[in-house]
Fold:
Amino acid sequence: MSLDRQIGAALWRQIAEALSAEICSGALPPGARFATESELSARFKVNRHTVRRAIQELTHQGLVRVEHGKGTFVQGPGIDYPLGPRTRFTEIMLSKGISPSRKVLETERIEADGRLAELLNVATGAPLVCTETLSSANGQTFAFSIHYFPEERLPGIAKHLEATRSITASLEQLGHGDYRREWTRVSAELPDARIADVLGRPQSRPILKTESLNLATDGTPLEFGVAHFSGDLCRLTVEGAPYD
Amino acid sequence: MSLDRQIGAALWRQIAEALSAEICSGALPPGARFATESELSARFKVNRHTVRRAIQELTHQGLVRVEHGKGTFVQGPGIDYPLGPRTRFTEIMLSKGISPSRKVLETERIEADGRLAELLNVATGAPLVCTETLSSANGQTFAFSIHYFPEERLPGIAKHLEATRSITASLEQLGHGDYRREWTRVSAELPDARIADVLGRPQSRPILKTESLNLATDGTPLEFGVAHFSGDLCRLTVEGAPYD
DNA sequence: CTATATTTGTGCGTATGTATT
DNA sequence: AAATACATACGCACAAATATA
Structure:
């Protein structure tokens, strides 16, 4: 391995390229400790800043993860993720029983702001129950969701959620065993620090964000949910035509 | 505006925060020339490196665009984009006549690799016609797509595409005025340099990538397409349930 | 628990290269 | 050709988080 200090490619690019190749070759297992900045600096005979620039690039590509004071670690690039390129999201979810594996975290009461009020067809300021859930498959967290329920329409939903820690079960106990998904809107974003954290992913990697509305059988809104999926670990498969 | 050199926040973060606020306040119109590194360096009384780190952050957030030798420019954060948060993708596409506004760029012949062969239900190595299209609305390019057609099943498709520069028209002339979308898979990615370029977006901003399969009325595959949307300018709206 | 070493994070000063005007 | 503006690289110093003796 030697660097070309004369022309064209910047040193940090060459270093990033070399390190990237080593990681992708599989020589380093995911989670393994990476060489320290000092070591790399000595190895490539460049200044530490130059190494840092290269590592920054690797971070941005999602290949490594840097922890202050601890070191740099190889980030498993989608190792053993349950959703392959040809796997249908629906089938996977059902076959693995994802819906039951969803864990309800915290539950709190809030007041509906303008947007939520319109979506859920309640008055602005109406009481909502807000809860957060984590979905995982094969022990890998792949989605973080926030759900909003109109409390007036679902009396005691908060208690049911805390007791059952299941959305489906809670709605069923309130007489809505049969609700339906009205629509889902999908966008791509970069996660904020918190969402990146719960998904265990670098903030530099994109996520799929879906917003969806569930209705009761009579057409009144029961739940509005925002879900964040690890963007390059998942594919959402939609039957039929999404845009034409 | 003064920086806190004592505690907590790094200087470059404070600077990025300040500049971000100025941009978001709308004081600087999109496309406007930004202050140079030297100017900012003098203004905040920090080293140019520190300013560069801050600008890098703004770049990553998609607020500015840096051009070597020219300067730094304010990147319009979705100014005048046609798809609002509550706008249904389908409605917009139809009402603006997006399908006709799609422009067919280049057309070439390739051989089907394993994956394409399986998707299109042809033999590996079978001739495919590959074409690229740009979709825009209000003069704003918002999607770049690549389409694959099985040539054996669509004789002369290449000529039709070059003549009409329209996918729908070409298929119609070949007796497939009536095809249907079988499925669409949606994922989130960061664009490569080329796609970022044609979409006129920074490589640091995520895109929505959809893969979709269109079938003839008898169920044989007619087209496989990969589309790249400006991830945070668009939302794909799906009726019904995408995953449960 | 404390002290020390290790490792990453921030910032400055300087110098030189490359692209644009 | 010269000036301007961004890009790369080095060296030094110290701070902050973590690990270790």
